[in-house]
Amino acid sequence: MKTKAHYSTTFLLPLLIALPVSVSLAQEPRDIVVAIIDTGMDVNHPLLKRHLWANPHETSIEKDNDGNGYAGDLHGWNFASNNHDLSDNHGHGTHVAGIILQKAKSARVKFMILKYYDPDRSGDENLLNTVKAIRYATKMKADIINYSGGGDTRSPLEEAAIRDAQKKGILFVAAAGNEGRNTDRIGFYPAGYRLSNIISVAAMDARKRLLATSNYGSQSVDIVAPGNHILSSLPGGRYGYMTGTSQATAWVTGLVASVLTNSAKAWTPEEVKSVLEKNAIKDSLLSDKIRTQARISNLQAMN
Asked: Is residue 3 domain-resident?
């Protein structure tokens, strides 16, 4: 099975600037937990360090206080190395987290960091770590799962894990992939599983054109969001650019988190998807590319 994560590494030299993050606590009844299944995160990054999810029943890095099988999972777990080291030697996970935070614009967004990817591991090992991470996020009651990897072949284990997350009302925002192909013909998973809690996200540029590298599919891809040359956080307190459906996926996750933090309503994944589709811009040029013909251009579209 092909399970190599399709990460974009197209970014410029990091910019040493601070990104403005508008924080408003008005009408924010509870924290929204976003499980980021990725390459880890720089937990000390100035933009992100105040947004770590805290396991309410774990008090030590040496003991499994809550009995969930993971000793010291204070802020998540490293499934690649089977420990509590969440550091990001790749940069992708830190970049994704920064985009989510910028679009959510809320102090109530908390990141559950689940590191699954190791470039030195086989695709099957990375897939197994993905399944473990999904099940962890479900057990620990995340509100949203953000996932940017994938492969060409279906995995019953992965699909079953996401289906169980669906039963718990957890939204799964997934990258459509960066092969530039029609995934109605050749699928890309997990974005392509036909589950009602999955939002499959393609990427567009500043001119609102689908990226040549972005996958698409009038039946298999749900929505388009900006994913070209996106500025966000990088490890070491830095900032820089990346391009791809991973960045578009994080953009959508951030918008969804914004909706959830500003509402006392208990949203189902299906209701969230409906809100996205209704508030996004319909573009007839996407009629044979995207199921909803919908593109997200900015946060104002959601407000």
From this structure: no
Catalytic residue (choose from 8, 87, 148, 246):
246
User: Is residue 102, in this structure, part of any structural domain at all?
Assistant: yes
pLDDT score of 16 more than 90 = no
Residue 83 lies in a domain: yes
Confidence class for position 13, pLDDT limits 50, 70, 90: very low
Q: How many domains does the chain have?
A: 1
- Which among 29, 173, 44 is positioned nearest to 107, based on CA atoms? 29
- Stretch 162-175: mean pLDDT: 98
Give the CATH number for residue 173: 3.40.50.200
Domain hosting residue 105, numbered range = 32-301
User: Is 246 annotated as catalytic?
Assistant: yes
pLDDT at 69: 84
The pLDDT of residue 6 is 39
* Active site annotation includes 92: yes
User: Which of 45, 92, 200, 233 is the catalytic position?
Assistant: 92
